[in-house]
């Protein structure tokens, strides 16, 4: 299955993540990006799986609201033109806002979220360099897991389904100078748990990965493919 300009549907990636863009492109899809821009800290759940699924759901709702707002602006512009033309019959044909999803062009929206689980505690993006340093020192010679959610929504039919993928990661001892170099680059501050196992500096110290690297990077390919097919 490949989404191109000639396909009967389009794909929207609801994420600003460079890694997710790269993975989806590697899967052979063309897509556009619309970000949700939600306050993730306002959503709290006890279990990591529940948290990442709830965040993916919240992102869908925010993006649909954004699409609706854009639709209203277009309709209002059309309405202004119609009023100027004094075409009352055409004005009455303006579709109601709540019909947006029904009238949307065939499109599949992908939203995701991820956390790192370390010693039973959920870790999101580090709030500071000190927290990132603390996270990375904890992984040294230890073990962590990533929990990722993928939610695919069919904007035409309203169908949506979410599932999770978990990957276990085991580390050798990570030298302090490597940790400092990672923090100095700043990339670890923008990812869940400060964890980037594909980074050239950290890769030599990854002992074992039980699962797939694409899942650790935030978009498990097999799960995404499965949900895209189900949504169609």
UniProtKB/TrEMBL annotation:
Q: Does the keyword Hydrolase apply?
A: yes
Gene Ontology molecular-function annotations: nucleoside triphosphate diphosphatase activity
Which keywords does this Swiss-Prot/TrEMBL entry list? Hydrolase
- Please name the InterPro entries in this protein's record: ITPase-like_fam (IPR029001), Maf-like (IPR003697)
- List the SUPFAM superfamilies hit by this protein, alphabetically: ITPase-like
What protein is this chain from? Maf-like protein
* Native source organism of the sequence: Manihot esculenta
